[in-house]
Amino acid sequence: MDIILASQSPRRRELLERMGLPFRVITPDIDERMERALPPGELVAAISAEKAGAVAAQAGPDAVVIAADTVVALDGAVLGKPADESDAARMLSALSGRTHQVFTGLTVACGEDVRTVSEETAVTFRPLTAEEIAAYVRTGEPMDKAGAYGIQGYGALLVEGIRGDYYNVMGLPVCRLGGLLRELGVDCLALAGQK
After folding, report:
1. Which CATH number is 82's domain given?
2. Which of 2, 62, 69, 84 is catalytic?
3. How many domains does the chain have?
4. Is this prediction's pTM over 0.90?
5. CA 20 to 30 Å from 60, out of 28, 45, 78, 93?
6. What is the pLDDT of residue 115?
């Protein structure tokens, strides 16, 4: 079975490895700019579908292509990756003591069968001091992450609670992915049991 991850994200690779799936990576060449006038859930769904389509065009007809795109939204406004350290500090200050949403668009495609969904998880930050924000920014972790934090790293120290799929916050809603793959005839648990 040819399973292709259409992403260069190390976190998504790690999660697929945890699922026990054999896969290879092809990075899609698409325009991912966030200036599109869509609500966050629709935006990430559209981008994930574009990623899957770009990679499926290069893959064989029986390949299973998995693509995802994740954004952080506060009051409906998308927070992308910070431009610099002051931008990261600005985002973290805005998230401090508040609940925001993490949206991941997920597309699984096999030939003409393409399924796209959007997953939403609510994340609540504890109130942060300016010193804590500065210390976190100095770790460098916020710089390549939507919303300027990574829940799987030092950013876990900022998160008071979540409602929804933890792995969605990392960038890949694993349970939802397992369901979509099952619909296409790929049983992740059966594959894991063969190892």
Report:
1. 3.90.950.10
2. 69
3. 1
4. yes
5. 45
6. 96
